[in-house]
Write a structure and sequence with these properties.
CATH superfamily of the largest domain: Sulfite Reductase Hemoprotein, domain 1
CATH architecture of the largest domain: 2-Layer Sandwich
Number of helices: 11
Structural class: alpha+beta
Order of helices and strands: EEEHHHEHEEHEEHHEHEEEEHHH
Helix content: 25-40%
Strand order of the largest sheet: 9-10-11-12-13
Largest sheet: 5 strands, mixed
Strand content: 15-25%
Distance between the termini: 45 Å
Oligomer: single chain
Shape: globular
Number of strands: 13
Length: 327
């Protein structure tokens, strides 16, 4: 979405996915709000009519957009719409998560009001915390709450002079507004506790990793940790600063399997989008926190001119990147 002269308009991208990862491709058009329902309907219709129905694994829009290219896809969309959409050549750059996660205290358009973005540990709450959010939104605001695609919570319409008592109430429920960047950026899938496809834990492990980084390196800059409990990538491990996907490895001295993780580094969006490259494979769960601390410390020692973790990884060759995980 873009805001110009007080009016909202939308850029259109199509063909993204994380399992067999693809970045979306811009159709180079700009839409008004009234156009959105028809455009979305016809995009679905194009996939229905031309998507792969012979191979279930390729029954994804990303493969159709890749095969056709954005120009042909846009031409078919305009044919179905019956008009030409407004062209847009100034490419929109999707922001990094830290730029738009809405966590913290931010002014609203209405004078004297703010919204409060609350990071949720690994995206998991309990009944008591949700009750505390509901009560706080009614006590200090107007009862309006929003959820973000980064697994966090936003309370709207909070008077500026009520921010401190609101934050204290939330903290008593275990919801800390002023959390570290790594805590607020953590993304995990459901994991083995509730997902039949997962083979490893994610939620508890993700929180353990954040707490270890906060303890060992208290003033570290935010790392975008993404974790998936299987190769299906619901946690989008390919686009994290460090992405982790669960695997099972033999447990020494037994016939059993134990949890481990493959690590990838350097993924992200923004001006130079990239999928993470292999860092190290099959790290046992009990060694995972030590590995992250070691990698971050090497990054802190070797980075140039304050470069971000993604920029640092992009600069390194594959063997140099993998050396970060070695003793």
């Amino acid at each position: 979405m873009r805001i110009q002269a007080g009016f909202a308009s939308w850029c259109v991208w199509a063909g993204a996915s994380t399992t067999t990862p693809k970045f979306a491709k811009s159709l180079n058009v700009l839409l008004e709000e009234r156009e959105l329902p028809d455009v979305c309907e016809h995009i679905c219709g194009i996939f229905r009519d031309y998507g792969n129905r012979e191979n279930r694994k390729r029954a994804r829009m990303k493969f159709l957009v890749e095969e056709w290219g954005p120009d042909k896809f846009r031409d078919e969309l305009e044919h179905r719409l019956g008009y030409s959409m407004t062209p847009w050549s100034d490419e929109y750059i999707p922001p990094q998560m830290l730029d738009d996660d809405h966590v913290g205290i931010h002014p609203q358009k209405q004078p004297g009001l703010v919204y409060v973005g609350v990071p949720v540990k690994a995206g998991r709450t309990n009944a008591q915390q949700l009750a505390a959010v509901a009560e706080a939104s009614e006590r200090y605001g107007q009862g309006r709450v929003r959820l973000t695609n980064h697994q966090n919570i936003i309370l709207l319409d909070i008077p500026e002079n009520q921010v401190d008592p609101l934050c204290k109430d939330l903290l008593q429920a275990g919801l800390e507004v002023n959390a570290s960047q790594t805590r607020r950026l953590l993304i995990t899938c459901t994991g083995i506790q509730f997902c039949n496809l997962a083979i490893t834990e994610t939620k508890r492990v993700g929180v353990e990793l954040v707490e270890r980084l906060e303890k060992e390196i208290p003033h570290h800059e935010g790392l975008r940790l993404h974790m998936s409990g299987c190769p299906n990538s619901c946690g989008q491990f390919q686009t994290g600063d460090i992405g982790m996907t669960g695997v099972l490895i033999p447990k020494k001295g037994t016939d059993e399997k134990t949890e481990a993780y493959n690590l990838f580094a350097g993924g992200g969006y923004g001006e130079n989008p990239a999928f993470g490259r292999r860092l190290i494979l099959k790290v046992p769960r009990e060694n995972l926190a030590d590995m992250l601390v070691k990698v971050y410390r090497k990054y802190a020692e070797q980075r140039v001119n304050g470069e971000t973790f993604q920029a640092f990884c992009t600069r390194l060759k594959d063997d140099e990147l993998q050396a970060l995980a070695k003793d």
